[in-house]
Structures are given as C-alpha cells and as structure tokens.
Amino acid sequence: MFFDVSSQSNSNTKFGVPLRVHFSSENYQGSIQNWEFDQSENGLLYVANNFGLLEFDGNKWKKYNIPDATKIRTVMIDSKGTIFVGGQNQIGYFWETGKGLQFKSLRKELDALNVEFSEVWKIFELDDEIFFNVEDKLLSYSNNQIKKIDSPGFLISSFLVKDRVFCQFYNEGIFEYKDGDFIALPQTNNIERLIAILPNKQGYYFLSEKGKVFEFKDSNLQFKIDLLQSDTVNEAIQLENGDYALGTQNNGLLIFNSDFSKKLHLTKNKGISDRTVKSIYEDNFNNLWVALNNGIDYIKLSLPFTLINEELGVEGTGYDAHFFDNSLYLGTNNGLFVANTADLFLNEDHFSLFPDSEGQVYKISQIEKELFLNHHEGAFKIDGHELKKIHDIGTWNLIKTSKPNVVLGGDYKGIKYFEKKNNSWVNTKDLPDLSESSRILVFENDTTLWMSHGYRGVYRIKFDKNMKYKNKIEHFDDRHGFPSNILITSYNLNGKMVFTSKSGIFNFNKDSLNFSSNQFFDNYLGKEHVSELVSGINNSVYYIQNQNFGVLNEKKYGDFDKKTKIFKHINKYISDDLQDISVVNNNSVFITAKDGFIKYDPQKNHHIEKKFSTIIRSVKVSKAEDSLLIAIPINKEKLKINNKQSVKIEFASPFYDGFEDLKYSYRLKPLDEKWSKWTDTNEKSYNHLPYGDYTFEVKAKNIYDLESKVSSFPFQVSTPWYANWYAKTGYFTLFLVFIILIPVLQRKKYKVENSIIKKEKEKEIRVKNEEIDKLYNEKLQTELNLKNDQLTSTTMQLIKNKEFIQGIQAKIITSIDKGGSVQELKRIISSIDKELSDEDYWAKFAYHFDQVHGNYLEKLSSMNIKLSPREIKLAAFLRMNMSSKEIAKLLNITHRGVELARYRLRKKLKLERKQNLVEYLIELDKNNTIP
C-alpha cells in the first residue's frame, strides 16, 4: 500500500484499499475459476468461466452452457455485438435471440479443415476479421468462413495492440501479422515468453511472464525494468488513464504508473480476496473486474475513496487521524496505529500498534512540534517509539494556547493546565468552577474558550492574555435560543464560531448573549442535526449530517456548491460514535469509520454525469390462467396476449458504479399516468388486463440520483373473436334487422304467446282428465280386486263343498257295500249326485269371473269355434291358473279326464304343439280379443 499525503512520497501512489464487491461461485452459480471478461455495447458483462459463459446485468448473474466444452478460456464481443467464445475442444459464438443467447459451434468447420486443438486461449478482432489463438496456431474467421493461418512456427501467444497483431513463436521470436504475412521483429528471438505487449508514447513495452519489461522502439529492443522478484505474471493491461495493471500468480494485483513506478498493490486480505489474479478488465466506469483463483472481485478504482482497516493492520473503530513527521497515526478503540510513509512506499508494509497504546484513543493532538495521545488511560506524549504519561485521568483532548509551553486539556473531570518544565509536560492545576467532563474545547480567540457538553449545553470561559482564568464561566442552554440542551457542539470555522445543535446550526450574539440560526447553513443544510463540521482547503466545509457525508465547496465568494452524491458510496461505513473529519492536505481527508478509516481524495475527479440505460431483460407469458410463465422473444413484433394470460417483465440497468443502490420506477400506459415509487425490485407482473394496446415503460435511478433513459416494451391484450371488428359489424347488422323485424316479431310473439297459453290450458285440462282417469282406474282396480277376492273365495268354497259331499258319498257307498238299506241309501246318493251336478254354483262363479275378466266366459261362448260348457269351464279354471287336481274336483272328473279335456280344448283352439294353453288363455284376456 502506498501513501499520498506526504510531500516526500510520490503523488501518484495510493494509500488504503479501494472499495470492492466480491462475487463467490455461489453468487454467480459457476466455477470458482474465471478466465476473461468483456463488455457489450449496452453494458452487460460477460465472463469466461470453467462451467460456461456468465452474464451480469448489474442485478442478476446468468450462465450459458456450451456443448462439448468443459471450460471456457476466452470471450470477445465483436463490433457487431456477436459474442465469440473459445474453450476446451470448442469454438463458436453466441447471438441474441430475443429471449436469451443461443450458441453456434464452429467445430464442424474446423473438422472439415482437419484442424485439431484442445484449447482456445485468446480471441480478438481486426477489420471485421476474428482471430482465434489456439494452443499452437492462429485461426481467422470472416464471411462465415474459418481458415488456418500458415505460421513460421509453434505459436506461444498473440496480441492485438493499437490495431496491430503481434505473435510470439517458440524459438522464432516475435512477429507482426500484416496483410496476410508474418514479419519478424528484430532482436526478439531469444526473449522469454510474453504475457502482454503494452503501448507507450514512443512504442511498446514487452512484458514477460517473469515480470521483465523490454521497451521496443524504432525496431530496437532494450531491457527496462524487472517488476517482480520471484513471481509470475498472469495478465497485464493498460488502463484508460495510462497506468498498467498486472495480475500475478501469488502476489495479487499491482498497478504501476506509466513509468512503472508503483502506485497500488492489492493482495489477499489486503484489498482483494485472493492472491492469484488470472484476468483483469477495466469497464466503462474505469473500475476493475478481477478474475481470481476463487471468485471475482469488483474493484471500485475510479472512486476517490480508499479504506484503512484491519486489512492494513488497523483494528477497531476509528476516532482520529493525524499526519506527523512522515508518519500517519490512527487512533481507534483498540489503540494507536502508526505507519511510516517511506516504509509503506518501499516495503509495502502495513500499520503496527504503537507500543503500550492499547485501549480507547480519543484524539491525537499536535502542539507545535510535539505529538500527544489522548486516551482513556490518560494523556501521553508520543516520544519516538514510546509513550510518556503526563496525566492519569482519561483525557479527551489537548489544545494549544496563546501562551508558549502552556496547554489546556479536557478530561473526564474538567479542564486542566499543562505546562512544559524542564523539557517535560506536567499537570500544574485544574480550572476552578468547572467539574464537568470536557470533551470539546475550542478557542474563539486567544482569551475566549468554548467547552461543549453532550447534554448540558455549552460553556464560555474567559482568560487574560497570559491564560490566567478570570473567574468567569458562562453557561448557555435552551434558555438562550438552542432548541434543546443535547447535541450542542462548538466549532471554529476560519475564525468564526458556529454551534451545531439537535436542530440546526447557530451563531452567538455577544450583545444579547443569545443564539440565533445561522442563515448560511440553514440555506444549505437545513435544520437536520449536523454531528461533525470542519473547515477544509480553499474555504470548503466538510460535514456529517444524519450519517451522510458532504462538503460545501466555494465557487465564488459567498456562493457554495453542495456536494453529497459521490459520498453515498461511503455513508454506510461512517462511524456513529464521536465522529471526526481530519483534513490533512489537498488530497487527503480522513473520516472515522465503523471499521478503521475512510480516506477521501478531493483532487480525484469522478464523473457522475454518465448516461446510462435500462434494459428489458426478459418477458414471460403464461399459456393460460394460473399456468407457468414461459419466456418469449423480445423483438420488433408486438406481443399479443389474451386477458386470461399474465405477463411478467424483468429489467435491469448495467450501471456498475454503485449497482447495489440502483432503484427502478415503471408505469403501464395508458393504464398508469404516474410513475411508480422507486423500488429495488427489478420485475413487474400484470394479470387480467382489459383489452387494448399497452406500453410498459421503465427507468432506473443510480446512486447519484440520476435517472436513466426510459426503456419501453409494447404489447397488446387482444380482443376476443366475439368482440372484434367483424363481430361488432355483425352485431350492428343484426341490430338493424331486429329494428326492421320488430313489428313482425311482436305479432309472431303474440301468436306464440297465445299458442303457449292455449297449450298450457290444454295441458292443464289434460292433466286434470288424467287425474280423473287415474282416480277412476284406481276405483275400478279396487272393485276388481274385491271381485277377484270374492271369485277366489267362491271357488275355494265350491271346492271344499265338493270335497265334503264327495266324502259323504264315499261313506254311503261303503255303507251300502256293508248291507245298509239300499233303496234309501241310493235315494240319498241320487240326491247328492243331483247336488253335485247342480249348475247353480256355476252361474255364481261365471258372474264373478266375468266381472273380473271383462265378460271372458261370454266371449268364449261366442267364439267361432264351438266350445262345450265343460270346455268353457275348463278354460275359465285354466285362466285362473288352477291345477289339474283342483279342476278335476270342480268338474267331478278324474285327473286323466282333465288331461283329455285339455287336449280336446287345444285341438279346438288349433294351438301348435309348442304353444302353452294357459299362456294362450291369459294372453286372450290381456288382449281382450277372442278370435
């Protein structure tokens, strides 16, 4: 590390570590190793990674894989925006499809030329021709054709410098490739392997792998300097300001001035995250992207800030900084740290803890040519490399008085006098009438001292010209114009006393002994609390307000420019306890930080008015409601969706100078008239949009509160078929037809309504008739069931009577056989036979049977086929599904007689053999038809 505050040190060297952001492999989802960078015209960063091509837009990383390649070694974007890549066993290019990058391999073209290779190490463009440096040869690609360039030997490396192509061949030296030929450069055949050819004003510097620099000018080669003692150079580039940046294998990153004097050295735990640097790239913000052995560092080299913290050996929160006798002293809560600027410059050493200074340091005071340490343990004189204690009570500050060899000190218990006697400083007495802790002591003039207390206001103390106390202490608080008693601090700005308070900055009116608002600071800073205020060079004023750093620079007398935007980079680092700003000289302002210190260089210009853009990164549309989103091409054709689809638009701004603080605002025209509130969210979704044409607009705001150009994306929510122009024309035509046909339709409607009413009436009548028929049928069914029951009962009774009489008849016959009165018994039997043959029972049966079966017997009698009475009875009994046994009893015949009767009946009815007689008789009843 190098220091630039001393007049003895080189003004072009840097001190401290730049602000940086580290990206791990987990952040970008790739391999730990990266090989090369390039940046597209719209600002997107591309990185050759072992696992593929990385793309960074300032918000997200994206990885593109390459088929049949395990590692990508090089990436280059040509003048047309095509991204060429090369790696292990693969070579080709990416182009933008509208929804991402697509890869085209050139491997087949090389196979056709019988070109074999395993690695591609470099790609560059000259006059629309692309050159590929494979491991031993040079290839060119133009007009969609690739060819092998015949070379004078085994190719080691190639370089494009100021539109000239140089190649180094093993044992052959360095050649320039020009007009299709290789032209040897004199005196270069024995030069060691080159890593870079760097331009200078007169010619070129050849930088070897071992760090040796050779100057090539006017066809002469001359050794210039050895930059490294025992290390290897992996990469070297010339920066836009003319400096040279070197990446080494074991010693980190080195930056040299154009004459190769050292300017900055960063290595592991001292400014970068790894000691191995594989590649360096300066982006369009003049910051460095550094490919490490493990991850990527973004070094904010363009900013006028560096950090002095534990990486440089400074431990703890910063409290005060002081430059004295070619050394920088830094006080923290862990002690006093010191570094000699010459040692820093020559040995690249870091800070060391001053012996016996452990503990809380408050202030470093310089009294003439002597330096004092104000410490929690007391006050000490810094004498060479040791501390000499001059006071035992915790001391805030020692200040010089107008009287030689007399110093006032504020400690935990008040104000003390210190005098130098016999070349030693001693505490001679205490200031009477004041026992308050006295941290802030400021002389208004030689005889007036102001002491500020954290929560009790401010005190004015009067002395004579010999620093003798006049026994007068005046106390001022909220009764004298301050808004409250807390946070009051006194400052002497270029001979003028001002007092900060909880709300606003005040002046003291000596006549009224009251405080009133300072109009100058009210105009520039308002009423918010200012916690630190200090005069700078050229009448400037530095301040800290609400944890935000700023400076008022005088443009012309009485007119100041307020500068705050650039300091947004460091506000998050600033300490919030006993803040301090130390202005050392024109290019060194030290600000106490939560971790060490921040060094600000006011002389370093950093252009914040850089134009930038916002890019529509992707558009995703769902196929249907609640379905997954699918990326679609972003092209000139207007996107069309329906209102059931959702659309998600992602955007980003590749403004890397403070990309962590980018904000976005958007609107959807014509739906939104106003822009949305600023947000760090870089996507917006829309669902169920009404039909119509829309334009999505988005813009970004960077860390400097500057807005980007507006980017837009038009799309259309299409009208459905039933709402398009043709449908509307059809609707209008139908409307006209409807108007014309209204009278006809009304008449037709009247007829239809009358018809409906008539049908409803008819239906109502039909329903009622059906209900009546239903009730009548139910009544008939009931009567039929009753008659059927009566018929069954009568039949069964007849059967029983027959059985009974037949039983008696049998007994009488038996009695006759045994010798009874034959004549009498025969007379009884004859009477019984007469009873059995009596046809009265049949008349009753027939009556009931016809009631149930709709005059069935009468119809049988009237058939064309003549049936005997016995056959009609048989048909009736069969219709009732009686058994042959039951029929035999009723007809008073045998079972065989019943079968013969059935046979004769079948014959008369002319039934086929397969037809069932009973089923036939039942079917006659159902059909109510007698043939």
Automatic annotation (TrEMBL):
One of its GO terms (biological process) is regulation of DNA-templated transcription. InterPro entries: FN3_dom, Ig-like_fold, Sig_transdc_resp-reg_C-effctor, Tscrpt_reg_LuxR_C, WD40/YVTN_repeat-like_dom_sf, WH-like_DNA-bd_sf, Y_Y_Y. Pfam families: GerE, Y_Y_Y. Residues 860-925 form the HTH luxR-type domain. It comes from the Bacteria. One of its GO terms (molecular function) is DNA binding. Keywords: Membrane, Transmembrane, Transmembrane helix. PROSITE patterns: HTH_LUXR_2 (PS50043). This is HTH luxR-type domain-containing protein. It comes from Psychroflexus salis.
